Amino acid sequence: MHIHWFPGHMAKAQRMIREQLTLIDVVIELLDARIPQSSANPIIAELVGSKSKVVALNKADLAEPVHTTEWVNYFRDMGFATVTLDAASGKGTKELVIKVEQEAREKIAKLTAKGIKGRAVRAMILGIPNVGKSSLINRLLGTATAKTGDKPGVTRGQQWLKVGKNLELLDTPGVLWPRMDDQEVAFKLAVTGAIKDDIYDMEKVILHLLEILNHYYSDRLCERYKLTQKQLPADTNELLSLIGSKRGCLRSGGVVDFEKVRRIILTDFRSGKLGPITLDRLKN
User: Fold this and answer.
1) Are 102 and 6 within 8 A, CB to CB?
2) Cα–Cα distance between 37 and 44 in angstroms, integer?
C-alpha cells in the first residue's frame, strides 16, 4: 500500500520527549489493544531506554479478550507492568495509577532518603496518534482538560497535569516513526485511525480489511450485513459490492457507491459494531 507519513510536528515531539525524560520517574506507553505490536513505536522504546515503564493496552473493549490476555502475559514476561484499559469508560484507570505509583516507589524512596519528601510521582504518557492519550488523561482528571478528537495529531502541545495527590502526568503529542517499511503494520495503523484517512489508498486498505475479516470473522460479517456463509464470496471486490447492495449504498441505476460502503465498513470496524477484533496475534 506504500503508506508513509511523518509530519514535522512529530519530529519536534521527539526532541521534546528527549528533553523532558530526565524529569520523569515512569513512562506510560499507551498501545492499541487491537494492534499491540503494530502500535508499539520502536522510537519510543529507544527514547525510554531503561527507564521504568508501564504498558497500557487501551481500547481493550474493541479487542478480543482471549488475545488481549495473551498480550498482557507477553509484556509481563518481558518485565513490564501491564494493564488493560478502556479510557472512554474509565475501566482500568485506577489499576494504571496503582501500577505507575508502584513502579516509582524505589525512586521516591531514594528521594525521601535524600530529604526530598512529598514529591509526586512524575509520569509521561507516550503513544502513537489516536491511541487514546487525551481520553485517558480526561478520565484520570475527571474533566475535559485535554483536547480530544477522533483524528490523529489532535494533541500538539505539552502540559503537566495533576492526578490526585501523588501523580503528575506530562502529556505529549503522538509520535509515529519516520519510516514504515512493514506495510502490514502501516495497514493496521491506517485502519485503526493512527494515520490520517486522506493520505492512504482507502480502497486498498478496506479490501485488505475485508480479506482479514472474511478469513477470521466471517460470522461477524454475516451478522452485521445480513449475509449467509454461502453468500460470502472469496473475492473481496465482490464482497464489497455485496455489502454495498445489502446496505443500500446505491447510486442511480443501481450502481454501488463504493466510497460510501468503504466508509461504512471502516466506521463499523472502528466503532466496534463488527464486534471485538484483534489484528495483531501472537504466534503459538
Assistant:
1) no
2) 13
pLDDT at site 4: 52
SS3 state at 147:
coil
pLDDT, tens digit, 9 for 90 and up, residues 131-152: 998 889 889 888 545 443 444 3
- Identify the CATH number of the domain defined by range 8-171: 3.40.50.300
Cβ atoms 31, 131 nearer than 8 A: yes
Q: What does 166-181 look like in DSSP terms, one character per residue?
A: TEEEEE------S---
Q: What pLDDT shows up at residue 162?
A: 85
Fold of 201-271: Conserved Hypothetical Protein Ylqf; Chain: A; domain 2 (1.10.1580)
Q: What are the structural domain ranges in the chain?
A: 8-171, 201-271
Task: Output the nine-digit C-alpha cell for 110.
Answer: 531514594
In angstroms, the CA 192 to CA 103 distance is 30
CA-CA distance, 25 to 123, in Å (whole number)? 6
